[in-house]
Amino acid sequence: MPRRPRIHLAGLPVHLVQRGHNRNACFFAEEDFQAYRNWLGEALKSSGCVLHAYVLMTNHVHLLLTPPKPEAVSQLVISLGRRYVQYINKTYRRTGTLWDSRYKSSLVQADEYLLLCQRYIELNPVRAAMVDDPAHYRWSSYRANGLGQPDALLTPHEVYLDLDGREPVRLAAYRVLFRSELDEEAIADIRLALNQGQPLGKGRFLDAIEKMTGQRRVVRPRGRPRKENAAESFLDSPLRLDD
User: Fold this and answer.
1) DSSP secondary structure letters along 139-162
2) 24: helix, coil or strand?
């Protein structure tokens, strides 16, 4: 079956995931995380994309960004991936691929799902049982979005800014969102949209995407329940570092 083409649209947020090849590690030391951040900053500037949230995990990364034009997302991924792989291969005297060949992405309906996606992304280290509070994980956007720590990579989305015009109140309101765990159904919806390359949204948003692209974009129900349930159980394991 041919792969479904990705959809990137100017001005619409996209949730992007890139994993290490065969789910192997893509970060090996603290210096690697910092090097990736540096190349990410360069790629954001060259592509014109703006970044709203991110997390760098041991064997994968999540980015929530808005592109100025459809091709900017692929430009960012290619530029960032090439430069970071060159750094890793040179540093560790290795050869070959580092990333899976195809990143996953999903358009996000901002008014309904942007903050949900930010929570999903920034809670990755908690779900992986690496920390018990997202503030304790250094390589994510939570300290900026929740605590006000400066992060030059980030450009807050207007949905986030609309939490409150006063920064201290906005930060407090954002932290309140993290007091409860993400609903399992919401987690499943985000993962399914990513896996199928479908928009995360509903109603008129999906209708608008269909009109713009000429393709029906509705997340398909999972098939073969027994295998899918087993896969979801594996994905939700607290020992797993990639979700």
Assistant:
1) SBSHHHHHH----TTB---HHHHT
2) coil
C-alpha span between 165 and 41 (Å, rounded): 26
Of the candidates 189, 202, 188, 196, the residue with the CA atom closest to the CA atom of residue 232: 188
- For 87-108, what is each residue's pLDDT tens digit? 999 999 998 889 987 899 999 9
- Residue 94's domain comprises 14-235
Within 10 Å of residue 115's Cβ, how many Cβ atoms?
20
The tally of CA atoms less than 13 A away on the side-chain side of residue 227 is 3
- The predicted-structure confidence for 125-173, as pLDDT tens digits, reads as follows 999 999 999 999 999 999 999 999 999 999 999 999 999 999 999 999 9
Q: Is residue 198 included in any domain, yes or no?
A: yes
Could you give the number of structural domains in the chain?
A: 1
Please give the Cα distance from 123 to 118 (Å, whole number): 8
Rounded Cα–Cα distance for residues 16 and 197 (Å): 10
Which pTM does this prediction carry? 0.87
